From TrEMBL:
InterPro entries linked: NERD
Superkingdom as given in the UniProt entry: Bacteria
Residues of the NERD domain: 10-122
Name the UniProt record assigns to this protein: Nuclease-related domain-containing protein
PROSITE patterns named among the record's database cross-references: NERD
Lineage: Bacteria, Bacillati, Bacillota, Bacilli, Bacillales
Length: 172
């Protein structure tokens, strides 16, 4: 029980670092931190960060892991003897599904991108992943450089943010 609380506190500290970094985005981007979003079918998914802006919708999974990680096709292998509760790529797939399903119900066609953000300075990773993986200091530039075929307009961004807020709650 005590280890689980320490792990949760450690993860929360990493999320705070990313939230602060995302605060540097221009005002046309909206950032929602620590949300539990409900899909139309009733399933729920926790998100560390959701960013909505002209270049699309980004859901960012934060990991404050130290040490070496080997990314495999659909899993992550950590140092020997370490067992983690959740595969971050499985989380990103589920998060993307919930967001796309919710947006589809609202008639919104917008690009949705999953990102894995590693916050610990001693994190080292190898291998290929289905999702972009980066350090904290790279996340803002990644979002700003992402090109969308049809950028979201201000009214669409507001509609999407309203819908996410309406169908979610804070995960505090």
């Amino acid at each position: 029980m005590k280890r689980r609380k320490l792990t949760r506190d450690y993860g929360w500290a990493g999320e705070q670092v990313v939230a602060s970094e995302l605060g540097q985005l221009p005002s046309e981007y909206s950032v929602l931190n620590r949300r539990i979003v409900q899909a139309p079918n009733g399933s729920r998914q926790e998100f560390d960060h959701i960013v909505v802006g002209p270049s699309g919708i980004f859901h960012i999974e934060t990991k404050n892991w130290a040490g070496e990680m080997i990314f495999e096709k659909e899993a992550v292998q950590r140092e020997e003897g370490r067992a983690d509760v959740e595969d971050p790529f499985a989380q990103l797939y589920r998060q993307g599904y919930v967001l796309k399903d919710r947006l589809r119900e609202l008639g919104v066609d917008a690009p949705v991108y999953g990102v894995l953000c590693m916050t610990h300075p001693k994190a080292v990773w190898k291998g290929k992943t289905a999702f972009p993986t980066m350090r904290t200091e790279g996340v803002v530039s990644y979002i700003l450089k992402k090109q969308s075929k049809q950028p979201l307009r201000s009214a669409e961004i507001k509609k999407i943010v309203r819908a996410i807020r309406e169908y979610s709650q804070s995960s505090k």
